[in-house]
Structures are given as structure tokens and as C-alpha cells.
Amino acid sequence: MSWLGAVPAWCWWLVALVLAAGGQQYRVVVAQGETSTARSELADYRLEVAERDRRSAAQDRQKEQRRQAVADEEGESARKQLELAQGRAAAAESAAGGLRGEIARLRAGHRATCDTIAAQQRQAGASAVVVLGGLLEEADRMAGDLSTALERSRIAGLACEATYNGLTK
To answer: 117 CB contacts (<8 Å, ≥6 apart)?
Structure first.
């Protein structure tokens, strides 16, 4: 133990201080390494989450675009069908106008021929033709209106159903 006594006490304190500082420096280096690793993992995680969000947003956009395309396609189809139905309704109205003109011509012809018949017979015959002609005109007009309304509601219902089916696929 003689050589231990030869070393002054302040040197022992200096050795202890160097050892403690070295230990602390080692802990700082290890902590910096762990921090660096944690930051790297956090950056990787953030990139992964950002990529997942980007893919999810792209998928959502694709779904929305597909749904909008289906809705637009069905809307266009319904519009074309309505145009066709309106054209058919216009043709039917034209034909009905021709029928009404024919009824009016028959009424006028009936009045002209009834002048030669006795007054009593003429009134009975004229009233029957007038009543039947009026009923026929009114029934034709109502049938045209109902046909147009029914066709429009049928086209709208089919378009709605097709749009729903396209969106739920």
C-alpha cells in the first residue's frame, strides 16, 4: 500500500471525477443514439401514415368519381327517355287533334243532314252525337295527359332505381 499513499488525495479525486464524467459522457452518447433512432422511427411512421392517408384519399376520390359517373350516365339516359316520351306525346297530341277535328266535322255534317229530319227526331239524334263526341274528346284528352304523366314518372323511377343500383355496386 505504499505506492497508494504516495499519490496525493487530490489525484484520487481527479480520477473519480474523470471516471464520473466519462460515465456521464457515455450515458449522453447512448441517449443521443436512442434519440436518433426514435426520431428515425418517428419519421418512418409519419411517412407511412402520410402514404396511407394519400392512398385512402385517392380511393375515396375514385369511388366518388365512379358514383358521379353512374349518376351522370343515368341522368343523361333519363333525359333522353324523357325527350323521346315528349316526342311521342307530341305525336299523340297531334293525332288527337286530328281526331277532334274529325269529330267536329262529323258533328257539323250531322247537323246538316239532320235539317231534313223532323224536329223531334233531330233533337234526339243531335244530342246523342254531341254528347258522345264530347265524351270522346274529353276521354282522349285525359288519356293523353295521363299517359304523359305516367311515362314521366316511370322514367324518373327507373332512373332513380338504376342510379341507386349503380351506386351500391
So the answer is: 125
